[in-house]
Request: fold
Amino acid sequence: MTMNSHRIRNIFIQGPISAAFIAEKIAAHAVKLNIGGHSIFLGQVRADQKENQEVLCIEYTTYEEMALDVMHKIRQEIFDQYELTCLHIYHSLGTVKAGEISLFVFTSSIHRKPAIDACSEIVERIKKELPVWGKEILSDQTHVWKENK
Amino acid sequence: MNTNKISILFFGQLTELTGKTELELSGIEDTLAAQEILKDLFPKLGQTPYLLALDREIIHENIPLKGNHTLALLPPYAGG
Reply:
C-alpha cells in the first residue's frame, strides 16, 4: 500500500487530460524500482451519431463531495483486494472534445496481474458508482445526456 | 414541530428539468415526504429515474429526517 492511500485526493481535472500529463505520470514511476508492471486505461470521447447528429464534445459535471467519498471508498477496497504498488485516477470536468481523453486510470504492481485486474475493475466501478454526468453537445448545438450502460 | 432545513441538490438532466441546481425545504418528516413535495413542485420528476443520496450516501428506503440534511437527486451516471 502506498503512503497516500488513506488521504482523500481530488481526482478531477478541468478539461481534457493531455498526453503530456500522462507521459509525466509514467515518467514519475521510473524511480520506483520494485514495480514490474503498469496498466493504463484511457477513456476517450467518441463522436457518436445521435439523433442524426454527431457528438462534438461532452460537458462533464459532478457532485464533487460525494464523488470524492465514493472514489476514496473504491480506492480503499481496491488496495485491500489487489497487491498494488501505486494507483492514480484522473477524471475530466468541463468540456472534452471528441478524440480527447476524459479518464486516466493508472495502476502499478510488482508483477503484471494485479495491475491489469485492478485497472479493469476500477474502470467498471467508476462507470457504475461515480456521480458524474455528461452532456453530449451535438453538431446542431442541441444536446443529449449520456448514460452509462 | 419539525423545523429542520433540508438542502435539495439537483444534478445532470434534473437541473434542466427543474430549472434549478438547489433549493431548500423545511419541516420535512422523511425522505419520502421530500420526494412527494418535489414531485408536486416538478411533476416531470415522476417520469425520470434518479437515485437519492442523503448526506452523500445512496439510500434505498425511506429515512426519517431529524435536524438539517442534504438530499441529492442523482440521474443516471455518465462518468468515464
Notes: The first strand of chain B starts at residue 5 and ends at 10. The mean pLDDT of chain B is 95. Chain B touches chain A through 14 residues (CB under 8 Å). The helical segments of chain B are 13-18, 31-41.
